[in-house]
Write a structure and sequence with these properties.
By secondary structure, the chain is of the alpha+beta class. The chain is built from 4 helices and 2 strands. Strands 1-2 form a two-stranded antiparallel sheet.
C-alpha cells in the first residue's frame, strides 16, 4: 500500500506510524499494556475486512495459490496486532515451542 493511503475512513496513513514511531511508541506501549491489564481491546481494532484477489498473470485460477488475501484493518489495530505477534513469538521462542 502506498505510504499516504489509508485502508479505512477512520484510519491513519502508514507513513504516520513509520515517520513518528519514536514519538508514538512511548505513548502507544502503555496504552496497549493498559488494554491488556483491564482487559479491553477496542472493537474497531478487532474488526478486519478480508478480500480475496486474483494474483495477476496466473494461467489457472482454479488453484488455491493463484489467489491473495488482502486484509484491511483499523490504523491502530495494525501496530497493536504487530506488537502482540512479536510478544507471542518471543514467548514461544523462550519456552522452546518453535522449531
Amino acid at each position: 500500500m502506498k505510504p499516504y493511503k489509508v485502508t479505512q475512513s477512520d484510519s491513519l496513513p502508514n507513513i504516520l506510524f513509520r515517520e513518528c514511531a519514536e514519538l508514538i511508541a512511548p505513548l502507544f506501549g502503555p496504552l496497549l499494556r493498559a488494554g491488556f491489564t483491564i482487559p479491553h481491546y477496542p472493537n474497531d481494532w478487532q474488526t478486519n475486512e478480508t478480500f480475496v484477489a486474483r494474483k495477476p498473470g496466473k494461467p489457472n485460477y482454479q488453484l488455491p495459490g493463484t489467489w491473495r488475501p488482502l486484509v484491511l484493518s483499523s490504523g491502530w489495530g495494525c501496530p497493536s496486532n504487530s506488537v502482540v505477534a512479536d510478544i507471542t513469538v518471543r514467548g514461544a521462542e523462550l519456552h522452546g515451542l518453535l522449531p
